[in-house]
Each structure stands twice: as structure tokens, then as C-alpha cells.
Amino acid sequence: MIGRLKIYLKYVRYQGLLAVLCLCFLSSVSPVLAGHGDETVLILHSYHPSLGWTAGIMDAMQERLAAKRPDLSLHVEYLDVKRNPGPAFYTSYVEGILPQKLAGRHFDLILTSDNDAFNFVRRHRNDLFRDVPVVFCGVNGFVAEMITPLGGMTGVAEAPSFQETVEVALSIHPETRELIFVGETLTETGRQNDMTLHQLTDSLPAELSIQFWNDRPLEELEPVLGRLTQGQVVLLASVISNRSGKVLSFEESARHVREHSSVPIYGFWDFFLGEGIVGGHLTSSHAQGELAANLGLRILAGESADDIPVTISDSNRYLFDYNQLQKFGVSLNRLPVESTVINQPASFYHLDKWQFWAGVTIILLLCFSLFLLIWIMVLRRKAESILAERVRLADLDAEIGRVLTRGGDLSETLQACVRILLRQTGTALGRIWTISDVDPTLLELQASAGLSTRTDGKHRFKRIGEMKVGIIGSQRQPVLTNQVAGDPLFTDQEWVRREGIIGFAGYPLVVKDRLVGVIAFFSKQPLSEAVQASIASVADMIAIGIERHRAEEALQGLDQIKSEFIATAAHELRTPLTTILGYAELLSNDMLLPGFPAEQREEYLGYIIAKSEALEKIIDELLDLGRIETGRTIVLDRQPCEMIAMVQQVILHYSQENQRHQFVDSCPVECLDIDIDQAKIQRVFDNLISNAVKYSPRGGTIRIEGRLVYPWLEISIADEGIGMTPEQAAMVFDKFYRVNTSDTAVRGLGLGLTISKGIIEAHGGKIWIESEIGQGTRVVFLLPLPERSGE
Length: 791
Ligand code: ATP
Ligand code: MG
Prior knowledge:
By secondary structure, the protein is of the alpha/beta class.
């Protein structure tokens, strides 16, 4: 404990708790704390290091000295008289070992705390500490005579605010009838305090009872404290010891008194605060230590101690514990205005302005950081969703692209596209209409997926320009609505209600300004722009797919017809040629070896002529077709012709040849001289009547009608034959087109109507066909009549 171990602390700059604890610890095992300088300061404490009061003084001294003179070596000694009261310890240690220990040492400055250390230095002023300047603190009952004869001494006299504390206690508890001072008279300081307190109580009102409970061990104090009642106030003037001599710390002392009594307790030193006292005008150990260290530094800097007057501590302040005030029902406005209250719940209004603005700044900074974080998060989410949307659209493009390039049936291809889009958009029904082959003013349903997969229902055809889908087609503008119910452009409102349809998205399918179809989706949830974006991203692809499919189909149909024609034409040419060749051979053999009777030869020649005429007819048709194809008009050899007579002649010819059919005619009786190419118009009759016969395999009536519908002569040929669908009828004027191209079908080149149309149009007329499947066909043509005289 009293070893000569010398530890040098290089630099004690920081005074945090750790440093204090370290130094306290070190000082308890070694008397010396040193810097690296030559000057040494002796710090001499009256009490022990773990005593709050002494620790506060030591802490403040070290803090100041280290801040200004880190080079100083500190030698610290504790007389420890509070824990060791009585003369034996004094004799053996304070006046025995300690002087021996310090003998022969040189100190440049001595700092002391409390009366015992101060008195020790005074006693040894002329042996151990000759000429060494001394600064004291914590000295109670100081009078100038204590230092004047010795010289080189100055310091801080401790002046506990006994009077102020008693006064404030009485003003806070006006019902007080008795004051009890708990103190000690075993130490010099204790005795000084006791004396001062006795002087003070003499001046208090006579009706106020006063008791001094000095030097009572804890075991004795506890029961009497427990008996205190309202109107009594305890004033704690020192620490307490127990019967075995153990001195409690200030904190323990205050806690014990608090625990065993129910009356208010006041104190005189700040280290009691927070441990159970209500408060008081309290002396601060830290202030004592700091003031003493400052005086010491002035002396080390060259000032003479004798020139520095003794400071009477002015560091006492009104301090109170909020918890104790609450306990005794004391409101804060009963306290002196300059009071400081500890343990008060932090209130916004009690924060000083720096705390307030620091708090506000921190909150603003936090808000700003939070806003920044949220903003960054929102931006990131946005970027992520844009990316996800792009990936989704790219996937969709790829999937639709794969389906469209796979080829195959258009309807199936579009069906697959709708199914993919339906899955991607989460909609309930998806449909694609394309421009109808039959009527380009109609949209025809090609694909349907979801709620209905039928393409042949009542929604099969939509007229362009009518209803929602038709309007999308005509205006070529996409439509997105979430109010399908009640919209008159959606005709089937009953279905809309039943299925709970809310949203509709439609998009025109356009290639190079040409409408090829419309794609549309119905949804049971409100639709977002994302659905429109999905459809938009693939609409062009689908439109081009439809166009390409159509072109391929047409190309394949224009090739198929050609090859069929070649086969048919070859057959048609070969049949008459075989006949011609066969009979010609027979006749030529007959010239070498005559044997056929004359009638037979005539018959053979008749076959040859008839078949040659048939060949001529075929070749004429091909030539006419050639002309029509290359845009040249058919050359007409116009002669005035009595039309009605000619019609009757043709009818007569056909009625004689066809027994199964009944020919009925109704023509105007008047003679009609029209300038026509008779042979060619006859060919038209030939074609039309031969068709009526060919395509009425079961016979029936063939009605030929002539009407004057100025300025036209209208002629119609109607049969009761197999008839055609509207789509088929729309194509019969196309070259080589034949409804039935199977081997079992009636023979033909598919040119009759094409050529007839060419001839009629060359005459300035018109031709059309009306047909119903299974019911029959009526072909009508108009020829312009000569202008009537006088008109
Ligand atoms: P050809 O060149 O020998 O006349 P074709 O009769 O087949 O051959 P078109 O007269 O041009 O050719 O007729 C075209 C097609 O129209 C026919 O193949 C037939 O399918 C259909 N068609 C024409 N007239 C009728 C009709 N009266 N009734 C039913 N189908 C008809
Ligand atoms: Mg024909």
C-alpha cells in the first residue's frame, strides 16, 4: 500500500469516468501519479478515495492540472481519518508512518483537502514542507490566523450554507416544529461543523425544537429515525458509521436515513443529492477541488501564495431532487427562483435553447434523411417496375412472335395469340376480328378465348364504324374504358351484368395505314394502362402476321387455281382432239379402203366439225381472257341485232338438247334492235344457260326473263340448282374460280363467267349474280338500250 512504486502517467487530458476510476484505483495502491516533468505536486486528502466528497475534489484537481500542466508529477496521499477515527491511528499512521514516508521528498506545491490534511501540513510546515507553497480546500471554520504565522499558504475555505439550507427547509415545510441534526464530532471538520451549527441554532425561533444526534452508530439511529413524524425535519451534516466502526459513504448514509424515516431530509453537500435528501443550499466538492487547483496553477506559474487571498467558497447552489419534492407534495414554485431541480422529467419547456435547437436540428436532419431514403426507395421501386414491365413486354413479344412465325391456320394462330395475351393481362375474354374476305366493310371474328371460345355466334360479324369494335376499326384509335356497363356501344348489356364485366381495351390492327382487324379484351377488374401497353406492344406484330398469312393464302390460292386450270384445260383440249383425231383417221383409212356408207362418213365429219368448234370456243375464250387480263378491251364487231329473236333462238336450241330441264321465258314482244357483237353476246347466253343446266343436276325450271328497264335491257337467267354461298358467289367472276374442283365435279375451266363479264362490260353493260345455296342461282346482265327518239 505504501510501496515506492512510481508510475508515470504521460498525459492526463481526458477526465472521463474511466480515467477517474483508473486514477482512483492507482492512487489507492500508489501514492504517486506522475507526468514526465520535474515538478511534483503533493495532493493530501483528509479522507479515503472512495468517499464521494474526496473523489469529487480529486477528480476536479486532476482535471484542471492535467488540462493546464500535463507535465506535472502528482504524489497523492490519503490520511483516511474518517474510516480510522481515534488517536491510535493518528499516532501510528498520520503522525507515524506518513511523515517518515514523506521525509526527504521534494514538492513544488502541496494541495490539501479538508481540515485534517490542512492541519497535518501546518504541523509539518517547518520540517517536511519547509518553503513549499500550500493550497488548501474544504477547510471548515477557517480563520486567517490559521495560516498567517506560517506563510506561503492560501486556499479555499469551505463554508457550507448551513443557514441558507435551514431557512429553505423551514420555508418549504412551514409546519416544521423540530430540526434534527445528524452529524459527527470525531473529525476536525465534523467538530467545526458542529460548532457552526450550534451557533446557528441559537439564532433560530425559540418555539423550534432542536436535536443533535452526533456520533450515533447506524444501529442506534435506525429505530429513532423510524419514530419521526410530520413536523420534524432531518438535516444530514456528515456521514454515518456503524457499530463496528465502518464509515458509510455519503451516498449510503443518505440512503439509510431515507429508508428509515418518513420525514423530509436536507443536506449541506451535493453528493447527498439524488440519494434521498430533498435538497438544500449545497456545497460542491468539485467546485472546491477546481478552485484549489486553479490557485495552485497560479503559484506554479510564478505568483506567490502570500499574494493570493483565501477564497471563501462561492460555489454553493440551491439544488433539489424532483422525486423527493413530489414525495412531500412540494410544488416547484415554492423553491427559490435560482434553484436547479434534478430528476425532473425532461419537459420540452425546460430544455435550454441549445438543447432545443440541437433537438430540432436532429429531428429535421432525421426527417430529411427519412425523406431522402423514401425518395430513393420510391425511385428504385419505379425503376424496378419499369424494368420488370420491359422484361414482361419483351417476353410477351417473344412469345407472340414465336406463335406468329409458326405458321399454320390463321384462326388457330390468332387463337394462340389471344390466349397468351389473356394470361398476361389477366382479362376475362379476348377476341380478334379480321377484315372479312367476303365483305371488306365487315370485321369477322377469327379468335376468341376466355369466357367464350365460339367464333360463329352473333358477334361473328361487326360492321366497321358500328359498335365499339367497329368504331375502333373505323377511327383506328385504341380504346380503354372501365365503364362497360351502361355504355350503349356495348349492345349485350345483359351479358356485361351477368359476367360482371368492368373494363374493355380495344386496339386497331393496322398495316401501312390499312386496317386488317381489331383486337379487344374484356375484364372483370378495372384495367390499367399496362394492359393497353401490352396490347400495343404486340398489335403491330399480330397485324403484320395477319397480312402475311393472307398474302401466303392468296399466293397459294392464285398457284392452286393455275395448276388446276392447266390440268383442266389440257383435259378439255384433249377430249375433242381425241375425237377429231379418231374420226379423221377412220376417214383417211376409208379413202384408201372405201367401205363406210356415205351417211356414216357424214356423221363422222359432223363429229369432227362439232369438236373443232368446241376447240375453237375454248381457244377463243382463252384469247378473250388474255385480252381481259392485259387490260385490253375485247374487240367487238357490233351489228344491229334483234335481241329478243336471238334469245328465243338460244332457248330453243338448249331446250331441244336438254330434256331434264324446262325452259320458261318471258320477254317483251316488241322488236329490239341493239348494236351488239352477236357472236359474243351469244357466247354470254351460252355460258349462262350452260351453267344453269350444269349446276342444276336434278333438272328443274330454267327461267329466262327479258325486261326493259330504261335505259337498260335487263336479261336474267334463273335456275333451281345447287346454288352458292354469298362468299362463293362473290368470287365466281374471278378467272379460273370454280366452287367445286373435285374430280367428280362437272367439267369446266372456270372462265365462262369471267369472259361473260368482260363481254358485257365491253358493251357498256353490267352483270351480277344472286344465289342461295340449295335454292338456285340467278344471273342478271344489263345492256344499254339505244336512245329513244324524242328523249
Ligand atoms: P366454264 O369455263 O366451262 O364455264 P365453269 O362453268 O366452271 O367453266 P364459270 O361459268 O365461270 O366456270 O362458273 C364459275 C363457277 O361458278 C362454276 O364452276 C360454278 O361452280 C359456279 N356457277 C356458275 N353458274 C352457276 C349456277 N347457275 N349454279 C351454281 N353454280 C354456278
Ligand atoms: Mg360455265
